[in-house]
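## tool: complex_structure
## caller: assistant
## args:
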Amino acid sequence: MDEKTARSVQVWIQIGEALLPIGVALVKELRGALSNPEHLDAVLAESDATWERIRARAREELGDPPA
Amino acid sequence: MTRRIRRFSLVLVLTGLWMSTILSVGACGHKLIQTTAVANQQLAHVIESLQSGELVGFQAGRITTTDHQRWQRTFDQIAQIGLAVNVALRAGDGKTALAQITAMLDLLTTLERQDAPKLQPQDAAVILASLGAARSLLATLATQTGGR
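## result:
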């Protein structure tokens, strides 16, 4: 395998690695949410936590004080 | 270059189809709030991985400080909207959630059009795949909730 092909394969593996867990999690969460309405609170709480993490990291990178 | 664009388009189309199928199965009637909540949660994970990908490029010196700050500022704005979507969902307000989703879609479009073309190949593949996934997710949601 030449260097260019190897690099291309590596990039595709990276893309797969990035998207696969998201897909699996999406299916799992969707099944959970549809079968159990109370699951919604847990989904929203986890979602809030992730968005807050993104905000905190962005503000850190921008040198802004925490919100 | 054309080959790379074709590949990226293929990734985006496949991701879009995959997410549309999943969401179409789940999104019907009163289940819409739940489906939107799950999609928003997954979107947060996609944006988080996008943020990490951008950070890797910046730390390796492939993304300028100005561009890095633009990316991070947009991530901050997207995250604020993501939080607002959850507030709307808790209130059962689908209309507001849709407005927020549309605003998020606009921010992602700006990133795709103005910032992504400046990326170097090492970062472009991963970042564009995440961007495409996020965009497809939002576009599907906007359609399902009655938007554009």
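## assistant note: The radius of gyration of chain A is 18 Å. The CA atoms of residues 44 and 50 of chain A lie 10 Å apart. Handing back to user.
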